[in-house]
């Protein structure tokens, strides 16, 4: 007897929900800015990480000073000139490069002092000097290390010629999953997480904040739609948009940038879909708490976009951060997604790792949704 | 009379942003939090990593190597020991450790006999930046052990020293690099969004038409929209520069006057871009997302994270329309390297050009919308 009563009710609710989803979907499709964020910006990002912005070693401009040209120092200088890491300008006085170092025309000065040849001939610890621009510590260490490398290689070659012994301990190092150390291979999977943060949190928080700002949210509340249906109807189109944008990124990553894909599609979608739950929950919470597009955009930027970039292990190692900041990173959902995505692409399916990430992301999502639902419900009362 | 009208508009614009206590809070709190959190978080050093050791060697040299690795804190936080190659595999796979050092059974014997000895290091290529640095540290430690072996000591006399000196930042303190970078990028972030919203908000709320029928001329409206965000920007810039000097201890070696002078031009360029985006957008949402669409590539192509000269040749010209690129050179240069005024000027002129072009474009779009 219950069925006839429940049937129309359920049908009713389904129709209501479908209408809601349809309305939200039109809103997404009609506004060119959501398409820009979901499809154009991801392509720009991938393109930049794929071609433009690379952390890989490339040629750095240095000045090379030979204070006293002799066959030995010329030979060492030739090693610097031949190095594929340096773009060398020659000189014979360090002062001529000091100005260049100050304005950044060169990143370092390698000085082969006048005593080098005599020390080398006498075997009394010959040394060269490397002056680097410390205002950019990365490039500074890079120049130092590669200068050491050039000198060591040169010394080994000279040593072999003069019959000295090979080094006592050699190190054989292997980089698993990414033997060529192509930075693109880990930057591209990481940028997918950033793209999903943009769609899930920034876009959603803006759209919902606008409804609050204009009062249409209250209007919707007056309809028979429940708060849960309302929220679910709002986020479903963005959930699908997020996955669509992710799919586009993955296709571009694999077919255009040649990033290997060693895991399964199941794992990829399971991880991405789970990540969208905290991302959307955060977007809803931000919009319900601010009810203002300017505030929502600033909060989304500070609490979602920048942390996904800087506090997720994408560019900077979490272990190296101060303890307090490490604690903050534990609530950044992207921190769990990025290593898993890098694994799906480069290593394959490692389910124990994925399941752990999924569990934590679900937990963060549950907290965001509870808070979002609470601040939405409060409005009705 | 025009200045009275203009003053009224400027006050109105400032009130629009600062009236709401939440907005006031968001303009002051988060930029400072960002500066502090991100300048400590964004470090490319590698510290506190976990590694694994598989030691099959029974002799002293294997022990010596492990002893030196465990002694080099804070780079290595913990060392897990194992006998089982499968455990190495699992630990790397699941990212429990970033690297595994394998010492073979003949390691000490080879060293004692004067034969070349070797060890293997396996690293997680998924974190290729960090693992490259870890490989560098481990290689240094191994080289230290090698130098103390009998064969190493014999070879030592032939070694060539490399004496490195770091100018401008002798201890390579990462914050000295990061804070000036953040000063410029956060100013872009806030300036762009505050300005992008200004016209779009009026348009969305319908007050834009009221502004248009007021006695204000178009250029006066533009100036009225230009000055308040620049004032907010200068306020931020001042706080950031004070924080850089007094909280982070970044030395200010150049002229404060040059820094402020170029900052005004930089903010004009940023606000010009924001107004241009605002004039293009129909809604606040479009304005915010449009600002974003500019900001993300602008940050990546500014020379902040990677030097511009490392980018491919076809991409480098695109960076010429990016105000952040020029101002980064100025901020970093004035703070640490005391760059000459001519160098500051060379980077300020492009900023002025960007400001002129974007403001003219915004005013043209403005007038076109009127007709």
UniProtKB/TrEMBL annotation, chain A:
One of its GO terms (molecular function) is ABC-type transporter activity. It is found in: Cell membrane. The chain crosses the membrane at residues 35-53, 185-208, 235-259, 266-289, 295-316, 328-347, 353-373. Residues 140-379 form the ABC transmembrane type-2 domain. It comes from Paramesorhizobium deserti. It is a multi-pass membrane protein. This is ABC transmembrane type-2 domain-containing protein. The keyword Glycosyltransferase does not apply. Belongs to the ABC-2 integral membrane protein family. PANTHER family: MEMBRANE COMPONENT OF ABC TRANSPORTER YHHJ-RELATED, MULTIDRUG ABC TRANSPORTER PERMEASE YBHS-RELATED. It comes from the Bacteria. Keywords: Cell membrane, Membrane, Transmembrane, Transmembrane helix, Transport. One of its GO terms (cellular component) is plasma membrane. Its main location: membrane.
From TrEMBL, chain B:
This is ABC transmembrane type-2 domain-containing protein. Belongs to the ABC-2 integral membrane protein family. One of its GO terms (cellular component) is plasma membrane. Keywords: Cell membrane, Membrane, Transmembrane, Transmembrane helix, Transport. Its main location: membrane. It is found in: Cell membrane. The chain crosses the membrane at residues 173-200, 221-250, 256-280, 287-308, 348-366. The keyword Transmembrane helix applies. Gene3D superfamilies: abc type-2 transporter like domain (3.40.1710.10). Pfam families: ABC2_membrane_3 (PF12698). It comes from Paramesorhizobium deserti.
């Amino acid at each position: 007897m219950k069925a006839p009563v429940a049937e129309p009710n359920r049908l009713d609710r389904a129709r209501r929900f479908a209408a809601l989803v349809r309305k939200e979907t039109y809103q997404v499709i009609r506004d060119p800015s959501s398409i820009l964020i979901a499809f154009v910006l991801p392509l720009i990002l991938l393109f930049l990480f794929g071609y433009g912005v690379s952390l890989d070693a490339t040629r750095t401009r240095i000045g090379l000073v030979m204070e006293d040209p002799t066959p030995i120092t010329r030979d060492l200088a030739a090693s610097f000139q031949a190095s594929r890491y340096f773009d060398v300008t020659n000189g014979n006085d360090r002062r001529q490069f000091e100005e260049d170092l100050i304005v950044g025309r060169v990143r370092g000065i390698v000085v082969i002092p006048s005593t080098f040849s005599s020390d080398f001939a006498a075997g009394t610890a010959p040394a060269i000097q490397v002056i680097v621009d410390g205002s950019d510590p990365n490039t500074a260490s890079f120049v130092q290390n590669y200068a050491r490398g050039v000198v060591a290689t040169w010394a080994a070659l000279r040593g072999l010629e003069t019959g000295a012994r090979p080094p006592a301990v050699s190190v054989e190092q292997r980089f698993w999953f990414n033997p060529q150390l192509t930075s693109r291979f880990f930057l591209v999977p990481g940028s997918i997480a950033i793209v999903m943060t943009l769609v899930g949190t920034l876009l959603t928080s803006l759209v919902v904040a606008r409804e609050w700002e204009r009062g249409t949210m209250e209007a919707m509340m007056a309809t028979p739609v429940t708060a849960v249906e309302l929220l679910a109807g709002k986020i479903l189109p963005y959930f699908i948009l997020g996955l669509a944008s992710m799919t586009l990124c993955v296709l571009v990553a694999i077919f255009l940038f040649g990033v290997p894909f060693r895991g399964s599609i199941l794992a990829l979608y399971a991880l991405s879909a789970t990540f969208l739950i905290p991302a959307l929950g955060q977007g809803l919470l931000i919009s319900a708490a601010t009810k203002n597009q300017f505030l929502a955009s600033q909060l989304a930027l500070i609490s979602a976009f920048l942390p996904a970039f800087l506090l997720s292990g994408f560019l900077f190692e979490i272990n190296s951060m101060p303890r307090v900041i490490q604690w903050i990173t534990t609530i950044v959902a992207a921190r769990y997604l990025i290593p898993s995505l890098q694994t799906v692409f480069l290593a394959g399916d490692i389910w124990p790792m994925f399941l752990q990430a999924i569990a934590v992301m679900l937990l963060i999502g549950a907290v965001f949704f509870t808070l979002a639902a609470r601040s939405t419900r409060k409005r009705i009362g | 009379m025009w200045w009275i009208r203009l003053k009224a508009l400027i006050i109105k614009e400032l009130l629009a942003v600062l009236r709401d206590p939440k907005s006031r809070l968001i303009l002051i709190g988060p930029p400072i939090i960002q500066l502090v959190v991100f300048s400590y978080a964004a470090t490319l050093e590698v510290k506190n990593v976990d590694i694994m050791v598989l030691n099959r060697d029974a002799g002293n040299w294997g022990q010596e190597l492990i002893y030196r690795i465990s002694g080099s804190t804070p780079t290595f936080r913990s060392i897990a020991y194992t006998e089982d190659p499968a455990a190495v595999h699992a630990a790397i796979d699941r990212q429990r450790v970033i690297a595994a050092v394998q010492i073979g059974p003949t390691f000490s014997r080879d060293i004692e006999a004067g034969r070349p000895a070797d060890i293997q290091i396996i690293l997680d290529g998924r974190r290729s930046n960090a693992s490259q640095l870890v490989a560098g540290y481990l290689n240094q430690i191994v080289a230290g052990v090698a130098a103390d072996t009998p064969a190493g000591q014999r070879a030592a006399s032939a070694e060539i020293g490399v004496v490195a000196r770091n100018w401008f930042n002798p201890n390579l303190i990462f914050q000295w690099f990061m804070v000036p970078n953040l000063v410029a990028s956060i100013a872009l972030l806030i300036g762009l969004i505050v300005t992008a919203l200004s016209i779009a908000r009026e348009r969305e709320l319908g007050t834009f038409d009221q502004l248009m029928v007021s006695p204000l001329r178009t250029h006066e409206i533009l100036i009225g929209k230009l000055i308040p965000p620049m004032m907010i920007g200068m306020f931020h810039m001042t706080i950031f520069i004070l924080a850089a000097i007094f909280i982070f201890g970044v030395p200010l070696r150049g002229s404060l006057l040059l820094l402020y002078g170029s900052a005004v031009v930089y903010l004009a360029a940023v606000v010009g871009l924001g107004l241009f985006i605002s004039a293009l957008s129909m809604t606040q949402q479009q304005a915010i997302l449009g600002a974003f669409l500019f900001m993300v590539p602008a940050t990546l192509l500014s020379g902040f994270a990677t030097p511009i000269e490392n980018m491919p040749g076809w991409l480098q010209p695109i960076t010429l329309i990016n105000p952040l690129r020029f101002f980064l050179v100025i901020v970093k240069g004035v703070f640490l390297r005391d760059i000459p005024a001519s160098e500051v000027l060379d980077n300020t002129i492009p900023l002025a050009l960007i400001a002129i072009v974007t403001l003219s474009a915004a005013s043209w779009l403005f007038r076109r919308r009127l007709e």
